[in-house]
């Protein structure tokens, strides 16, 4: 437990506004070891690539037991902090979320992504309901004795096309960030957001370390650092690029 707690504290310290940690998302022990060899300071899984690697669709379709076993194997394979994408906690009720978080901690994870979209449904959980879910996750972390990094994700920007991102959505995101912070989270994740002005405004309005995902329409790393971002992740991008390469090579080999 001491080693796990130390890794958790190290992971917290890597989140610095203006000097973001880069998490090039892995999906299994082999990919995690490659990312570690490349010089990573921590390993992060993404729900989409993990599910895809095991033949499942995203959205909590991969059995929790399998996802947890995968995390356990990744933790054993690398000498770095490992944070897990827990999607919506594999349940709506706060007590289910708490149980999932506890099991992920027991598997060796030192951090989690926890989203506010309704998995398997439409839209987002009401702020009040999501706060209760976040509070349950935070309580489970506290009870474990491991200072895990709880990264609260909002899907506000993913639910809208980039050209529709505006001040109204930003205000909604800031409201959620403040509510989740009071509920005990460690960071705020706004995937899909790529507008420089909105990113900078979010980073200034939220005391939490802000996480942005490096999609095609998102500014480069140095610019994100200048805007105040503290964490840059890659989500499904590495797996998709690997899959395209593998398919191309396979077609070349098969066709001669």
Summarize the SSE layout with pairings.
Elements (H helix, E strand, L loop, with lengths): L1 H12 L7 E3 L5 H9 L5 E2 L2 H7 L10 H14 L4 E4 L8 H13 L4 E5 L11 H18 L4 E5 L13 H17 L3 E3 L6 H10 L4 E4 L7 H7 L3 E3 L3 H19 L1
Parallel strand pairs: 1-8, 2-3, 3-4, 4-5, 5-6, 6-7, 7-8
Helix pairs in contact: 2-4, 5-6, 6-7, 7-8, 8-9
Write the element-wise H/E pattern from the N-terminal end onward.
HEHEHHEHEHEHEHEHEH
**Global outline:** globular
Q: Look at the structure and give the CATH class.
A: Alpha Beta
Q: Helix amount, in percent?
A: 40-55%
State the secondary-structure class: alpha/beta
Let me know the number of strands.
Answer: 8
CATH topology: TIM Barrel
Fourth CATH level, the homologous superfamily: Phosphoenolpyruvate-binding domains
Distance between the termini: 53 Å
> What is the average per-residue confidence, as pLDDT, rounded to a whole number?
97
Give a short account of the largest sheet: 8 strands, parallel
The strands making up the biggest β-sheet line up spatially as: 1-8-7-6-5-4-3-2
Backbone CA Rg: 17 Å
Question: What's the CATH architecture name?
Answer: Alpha-Beta Barrel
Q: Spans of 5+ residues with little confidence (pLDDT < 50)?
A: none
Q: Number of folding domains?
A: 1
How many helical elements? 10
Percent strand: 5-15%
Pfam families: PEP_mutase (PF13714)
Keywords: Lyase, Pyruvate
Organism: Mesorhizobium erdmanii
InterPro entries: ICL/PEPM, Pyrv/PenolPyrv_kinase-like_dom, Pyrv_kinase-like_dom_sf
